[in-house]
Structure to design on (182 residues):
């Protein structure tokens, strides 16, 4: 009987404590960084960028034509929690798809050298031979410095002028709270 009373008291204390925290005592983490009290809450993220484009592999200049165009984007912009930054993006565009399919991997470098990494997937249309309009989603995959273990993501959209070899785009989404400098 004494054992049952002790067990009942422990369960009651767990329920009361969970009620004070506004959580279920049996709740499990969803794996989101917003559930992690160490990482903190997700924060809004916004970035604008301009860049230059170098077509590394033009699929139509190959014999036979290949299905992927490889391009390197280098530029810079302004972003939440980064300030001014530079970016390097490796992009593959599957040119025989309609709409075009784009896969990217990017490294954003803040002024202090901290890096923020992201992967993107999207689609693109080419309304003229020299104009590309693209959009898609991105996921933060980590980084260095205050962006180590960064998570989050969102959407991106932009345009490219192939004749001028320039592009611009905007990113909107959320990012895990940056780690304070040590």
């Amino acid at each position: 009987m004494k054992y049952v009373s002790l067990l009942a008291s422990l369960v009651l204390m767990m329920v009361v404590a969970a009620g004070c925290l506004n959580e279920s005592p049996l709740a499990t983490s969803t794996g989101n960084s917003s559930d992690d009290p160490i990482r903190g809450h997700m924060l809004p993220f916004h970035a604008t960028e301009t860049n230059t484009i170098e077509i590394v592999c033009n699929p139509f200049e190959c014999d036979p034509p290949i299905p992927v165009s490889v391009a390197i984007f280098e530029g810079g912009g302004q972003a939440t929690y980064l300030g001014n930054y530079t970016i390097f993006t490796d992009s593959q565009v599957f040119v025989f798809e309609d709409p075009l399919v784009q896969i990217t991997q990017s490294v954003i470098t803040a002024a202090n050298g901290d890096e923020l990494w992201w992967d993107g997937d999207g689609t693109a249309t080419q309304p003229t031979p020299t104009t590309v309009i693209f959009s898609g989603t991105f996921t933060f995959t980590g980084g260095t410095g205050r962006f180590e273990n960064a998570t989050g993501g969102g959407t991106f959209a932009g345009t490219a002028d192939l004749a001028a070899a320039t592009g611009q785009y905007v990113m909107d989404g959320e990012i895990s709270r940056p780690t304070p400098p040590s």
About this structure: The radius of gyration is 23 Å. Residues 6 and 94 are 65 Å apart (CA to CA).
